[in-house]
Design goal:
The protein is an alpha+beta fold and about 120 residues long. The chain has two domains: about 70 residues, Winged helix-like DNA-binding domain superfamily/Winged helix DNA-binding domain (Arc Repressor Mutant, subunit A, Orthogonal Bundle); about 35 residues. The protein is built from six helices and three strands; from the N terminus they run αβααββααα. A three-stranded antiparallel beta sheet has the order 1-3-2. Strand 2 and strand 3 form a beta hairpin. The protein is elongated. The protein starts with a helix and ends with a helix.
Length: about 120
């Protein structure tokens, strides 16, 4: 599944808030959006069709009810799935090596990665 730039902007808001949101909440929290307010319905339906989000309940807004939306995966799960959705999949060892070459990786993150590898090996 690949998301458009506009869909990613919506997903970023959902990931950052960490709770289900209504269309109105999304509009209020989408500060640097590249899409028009009137397009949010189309974008949400596209995300539903791609199974990137799901309906997570209803909320009452004055006299009407609106749907709440939540992501179906974390940001990290999305990027991991995106890497392996391409025709030419990267070699996992070379991919991890390339990620570890980044200068912004902290010692604490390296320790956490080593812990995950050790858990996977047990």
């Amino acid at each position: 599944m690949e998301l458009t730039k506009s869909e990613m902007e919506i997903m970023d808001v959902l990931w950052e808030t960490g709770k289900p949101m209504s269309r109105a909440d999304l509009l209020a929290r989408s500060e640097d959006k590249t899409w028009k307010d009137s397009s949010v319905h189309i974008l949400l339906n596209g995300l539903l069709q791609k199974c990137a989000i799901h309906e997570a309940g209803m909320v009452k807004r004055s006299k009407t009810y609106g749907r709440l939306f939540a992501p179906t995966m974390t940001r990290e799960e999305y990027f991991a799935a995106t890497i392996y959705s391409h025709r030419y999949k990267p070699d996992i060892v070379k991919l991890i090596d390339a990620l570890l070459q980044r200068e912004d990786i902290t010692k604490q993150e390296l320790e956490q990665i080593a812990e995950l590898v050790a858990q996977k090996n047990s």
